[in-house]
Amino acid sequence: MKRYYFNITYLPKNCDVNLLAGRCIGILHGFMSSREISNIGVCFPEWNEQTIGNQIAFVSTDKKQLTNLSQQSYFEMMAHDKLFGLSTILEVPTEQNEVMFIRNQSVAKAFVGEKRRRLKRAKKRAEARGEVYNPEYQFEAKAIGHFHSIPLSSKDNGENFILHIQKIENAESIKNQFNNYGFATNQTFQGTVPSLNPLF
Questions:
Q1: Does the predicted TM-score (pTM) go above 0.90?
Q2: Edge-to-edge strand ranges of the sheet holding 193-194
């Protein structure tokens, strides 16, 4: 089974890679939703513990869909302005490790719910002591593993939200079903992508 990809490199130094990834994923989301497709996956070739890296790749068995996605006006404008390096459509080499980039919504639930509960409790304690409420909060994700957070904006309601993404190494078999943000999920979508990191 042949798969194809194109790669975007964020060219400005010291740019907010999470923000730019969110913009790219937003374009993908609109593209996939309008066409009602689920066969394009997102890959972060330079993902590591500290950062998602300054590249994002889109992978699919459908070369034509990838070509159409790469020609979206946002990508072309950013490439024209020398803010993005946009590759051509390339064939995925056969000897690649398969990985899953999972949108783990349980991270979001834990993050928001736990934060709210702890802040409420801390506020009560501070007020009982007659102190000014000055919240300090640090979330530790040890129980749910390492993740990166990518900010997005909803075009429907203008709300900002966060995608919490985790990487699973050495996925066993190639699958091409992704949610409409291009990620696998804990249950429904089990799409995998080639790691691509040796290629760049």
A1: no
A2: 148-153, 160-168, 98-103, 193-194
